[in-house]
Amino acid sequence: MSKVQVDTIVDKDDVSAPTFSKGAIVTGVCTATTFVGALTGNADTATTATTASGNAGGLTGTPSITVTDVGANDVNATGIITATSFAGDGSALTGITQTTINNNANNLLITGSGTANTLEAESQLTYDGTNFQLKKTGSSDYNEIIQDANPSSENGTLGYLSGYWNTARVADIRFAAGDDTSNKDNAHICFRTTNAGSGSVTDRLRIGHLGQLGLPVGPVGTAATDWGSSGQVFTSGGSSAAPSWATPSGGLSVVDQWHYAADCSTRYVSGNSLWLGEGTANSSGERSTGDFTRPSGQGLPTDGTGISNTADSSSGSDRYGWFKFPATGVYKVDLNLHVDRWGHANKTNTYRTWVSTDGGGSFTQIAEALVYLDHPESIRMLCQHTNFVNVTDTSNDIVKFTCETGEGDNDGAKMTVKKYSNATFMKVN
To answer: E strands within 318-413?
Structure first.
């Protein structure tokens, strides 16, 4: 075996590189300024080929090659190509699906279109990072948020509109299934909030499927299914307590009416007051002013007792028309009379309301109505007046009504108190 040790090998003219017509086998590292021609064999120890001229298609192994300028030439590669940047529009690339977004604009939400590789930007559905907006512009258009679920039992949740405070749920509106689990066509709406420290939302108010309003049936955490009872009202619990159902007090707790069930005719007596409703069995039958009776079928009196039509204890039980009260308080007293009157001209009829506070021993006038008759013919009159009476003693406080005229005893003046004339009593506090 021969061995050549030289520093430099040149051709015979000392001008260019020698030619190895049979090739050269190099053991070790072969370093060159430039490689020309085809490279074949295994290049798995190559690191960087900064310039490759000619055909480098024969490289095998796992070389790392940096290509600085492809120019008009192609790069054919099997595997992954990594580049600092890619230039061009990519229109010639194959195997890549291109997607079109119709009507695209800032803040529009994107939805499917039903067409492959096509999306729609919804012009009336926007989100700008703070505000989510559904918008309609047509005069008859509207938006609807639908929450559709299929719970199997009453009170099952259909959906929520929820409020969170720094990730903690503090309030919501819950839509709940009603009691018709067969047809599934009724529901409740529950308004819920969280009390400080409780850690869970609680029913505060519920609207039932009939429109009824429900309050919590117990302490925090119980369902708002206390529907109250007929006639009750919401009562505030103040700024630190929930409202509750309560039965109102006061108001028209007593309503009663006494009326004439038939016409009653009588003759005036000079200088005397005719006592309305005193009955027929008095000292002069032709001075009867009829009887007040309570109308039937009207649910009166409302309190079960009502205003009593009592007799004058000083004159016997034949003279009725004293009205006593079942309870203390302020009463509104209305007198409504329809009267047919005939007699001499230029006479005045006077209708009065009286109150006694000593059991009928004495009476004080509290109201009157005057009707002037300016001709002798028959005339029909309407007499009305309203008063308030403060009853403090149910045994001794009494109301009565009278009428009088300036006619003489034998003047023939008469009157008829018409059917349905009445006195109405209402307790207002």
So the answer is: 320-324, 329-342, 347-356, 364-373, 379-391, 398-405
- Using the 3D structure, point to which of 197, 225, 246 is the last residue of a domain: 246
| Model confidence at 52: pLDDT above 50 | no
Task: Quote the mean pLDDT of the chain.
Answer: 81
The pLDDT of residue 69 is: 62
Closest CA to 283 of 315, 329, 249: 315
> Please, what is the Cα angle at 288 between 284 and 289, to 5 degrees?
150
Tokens 């505060």 -> residue: 204
Going by DSSP bridges, is the β-strand pair 100-102/118-127 parallel, antiparallel, or unpaired? parallel
Q: Are residues 274 and 357 in the same domain?
A: yes
Pick the closest to residue 248 from 237, 233, 238, 236 (CA basis). Answer: 233
CA distance 34 to 47: 15
Report whether 370 contacts 381 (CB < 8 A): no
Residue 41's alpha-carbon distances to 26, 49, 122, 252, 318, in angstroms, are 13, 15, 60, 115, 145
Of residues 256, 325, 329, 268, the one with CA closest to residue 293: 256
pLDDT in tens, 343-364: 666 667 788 899 999 998 899 9
Boundary residue ending a domain (246, 263, 281): 246
Q: Write the pLDDT tens digit of every residue in 323-345.
A: 999 999 999 999 998 888 766 66
**Angle at CA 55, nearest 5°, toward 49 and 57?**
80
Gap between the Cα atoms of 194 and 202, Å rounded: 6
Burial of 286 (0-12, 13-18, 19+ CB in 10 A): exposed
Q: Is 87 part of any domain?
A: no
Q: Please tell me the distance from the alpha carbon of residue 213 to that of residue 301, in angstroms, as a whole number.
A: 31
In contact, 93 and 84? CB cutoff 8 Å: no
Domain holding 163, by residue range, is 157-246
The 8-class DSSP code of residue 323 comes to E
What are the tens digits of pLDDT across the range 104-160?
999 999 999 999 999 999 999 999 999 999 999 899 999 999 999 999 999 999 999
Tokens of 12: 């015979």
HSE (side-chain half, CA atoms, 13 Å) at 207: 7
Query: Where does the pLDDT of residue 319 fall: very low under 50, low under 70, confident under 90, or very high at 90 and above?
Result: low
Residues 419 and 279 in one domain: yes
Report yes or no on 292 lying in a domain. yes
Radius of gyration of the chain (CA): 54
